[in-house]
Amino acid sequence: MKKVLITGTSKGIGLETALAFARAGYKVFATMRNPEKAPALAQQASSESLDIAISKMDVDSDASVKTCIDTILHEHGPVDVLVNNAGIERHGSVEEMPISDFEAIMNTNYLGVLRCTKAFLPQMRENRKGCIINVASVSGHIANSPLGGYSASKHALEAISEALAQEVKPFNIRVAIVEPGIINTQMAQDISVAGNSVYPNSKRQAALFSAALKTPTPPSLVADKILEVADRTDWTLRHPVGPDAAPFIAWRQSMTDEQWIDWNAVSDEEWYASIERDFGLKVR
What we know:
Blueprint: E1 3-6, H1 12-23, E2 27-32, H2 40-48, E3 52-56, H3 62-76, E4 81-84, H4 99-127, E5 130-135, H5 148-168, E6 173-180, H6 186-191, H7 201-212, H8 219-231, E7 238-241, H9 245-253, H10 257-264, H11 268-279
Helix pairs in contact: 1-8, 3-4, 4-5
């Protein structure tokens, strides 16, 4: 039986990924910061008699990651797949968002992935096999306000994943990046609510997310893609997922940097008209 460890399984994409792997016959080690506050996965695993072991692990903490992963490896032996899914989102303009929020995003979304990856690499390298799947985002390709801090963490994750893939391929370890678009999660719903800002971008992004969530893409779609990537044998690095993911990435790539900045700096009327014209989303 293959074994997988998945981070951030209390809800959303992580929870659905744990269920997808278990239903596919994997032994699942599902980790989360506070299992006692998130009973949904345990209840679902029990009702379906799924082989899911839930462990407390905070990816922000060196000690927590080391203790959890060392225990799992000692008691259960090598793990075949690591899914780095844990992530947080904070949004706001560069001026208005506190430095503590920037630090929190990077600690979880970037350094948290490194902590878990480094804990597994010696075992995978020694066994000359393994698969590491990092859940990034379309925001790893697109930087726009008020998601600058979040985008920075996902850009960093894209870069380190690409470097890691080069390092570990000679040891038969596959690295893959899964890049969701707008998925119906609590994170996306939070972005869809406009806050008070002196910058108009916050209101615009809230309108965009709100419009996209009217025809929601479920997190199970991302979970299915992660499972598919784990079961594949090819070395494809990037995997956009969701109906808007590839179009959003292509849209950004169609513009120069200067055009992208100019587009994001236009008037509200021009911005809303462009979104409605190019993507058919009623965002006003």
